Amino acid sequence: MADRKQKAAPEEPSAAQEKGGTRFTRRGFLKGAGAGAVTAAVAPAVLVSGAETAAAQEAEGVMSAPVTLDVNGQTHNVEVEARTTLADALRDRLEITGPKVVCDRGECGACTVQMDGKLVFSCMTLAMDAQGRKIETVEGLADGDNLHPLQEAFIEKDALMCGFCTPGFLMSSKALLDANDSPTPDEVREGLSGNICRCGTYPHVFEAVMSAAEQMRKGG
Are 91 and 99 within 8 A, CB to CB? Predict the structure, then answer.
């Protein structure tokens, strides 16, 4: 009588088989699909380079154009991309490094400049939008070797520590005193409320502004 042997159940493909691709499996398919999705997601940002990058950027609408910026009474011609901020144009293209990019989101005030007499966060202002405007940075405060009374007062009252916030405070202080040459302490605090000092030198800053205001009223 012939032996009746049960047929063994088909063996599951080994990990080596799946990895080597010798057999199509559901797990192998999912791995391949996942890798393909990741590759497709990162390809535009990582894998495209050189001429292809330039073509991709142009296709996405990232273009450059020449602009004329009037900064501290001097005219500068510079080419910028549509996305270039005024802060980046000043610092990276014109080497006007007074405005500091700290938060890069219009919260700390370190990048504050005056544009047509009004305070703006240069990190939130496009360079193209500043064309034809009169821009003043902290570099424009001094008259040659003669410091502005605010700069002298900041030094005298020790109103700076790390210095990153100082240019923004000076520009905000100047705008405040241009509008009100006799501010009260409360008005000074309110006028500088858009600037943050992480070192905590606020009392010295307020004292410096009050001192500068008094000096400017005397014609100093």
Answer: yes
Structure-token match 């009588």, residue found: 1
Asked if residue 206 has pLDDT above 60, the reply is yes
Q: Which of the two residues, 153 and 47, has the higher pLDDT score?
A: 153
Residue whose entry in the numeric block shows the structure tokens 């501010």:
183
CA–CA dist 220, 213 (Å, integer) = 10
What is the pLDDT confidence band of residue 63, given thresholds at 50, 70 and 90? confident
**193 has a pLDDT exceeding 60:** yes
Averaged confidence pLDDT in the chain? 83
Please check whether residue 44 is in contact with residue 57, taking contact to mean a CB–CB distance below 8 angstroms: no
User: Among candidates 205, 210, 163, which has minimal Cα distance to 182?
Assistant: 210
Bridge-based pairing of strands 134-136 and 64-71 is parallel
Classify residue 124 by its DSSP letter: G
AA letter at 2 = A
Distance CA 113, CA 136 (A): 6
CA distance 216 to 210: 10
Domains of the chain: 64-140 (3.10.20.30), 141-220 (1.10.150.120)
Neighbours of 95 (CB within 10 A): 7
pTM to 2 decimal places? 0.72
In 3D space, the residue among 199, 115, 194, 184 whose CA is nearest the CA of residue 209 turns out to be 184
Distances 78 to 15, 60, 127, 139, 204 between C-alpha atoms, Å:
60, 22, 10, 19, 38
